[in-house]
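User: New here, please read:
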Amino acid sequence: AIHANLALPQEQRCIRCKMVANPGVMLEIANPCAGDVVFDIDGLPTARQEGHGLGVQSISAFCRKNGAVCQFDQTGGWFRMQMVL
C-alpha cells in the first residue's frame, strides 16, 4: 500500500483501513493504484520489483497459521486486501 501510494501524486495518496468484529474479525485495507496488478494462480498479487511483496507473503503465512482467509483484488482503480479471522 505504501509503495503504491508513493507512485501516485500527493493529492491521490490514501490508505483506507476497515475492521469489523462481529461475530469474527474482518479486516480490509485498500489503496488506489495506478497500474494493473498481476495475480498468481493462488490469487496472490505478484511483486514486480525485488524486495516488494513481503507484506503479501506475511499476510498469507499468517492466514495459513491461524486459519484465516484472505482475498486480494483490484477494481475501479483500487487494490484491496480482505481478511476474515
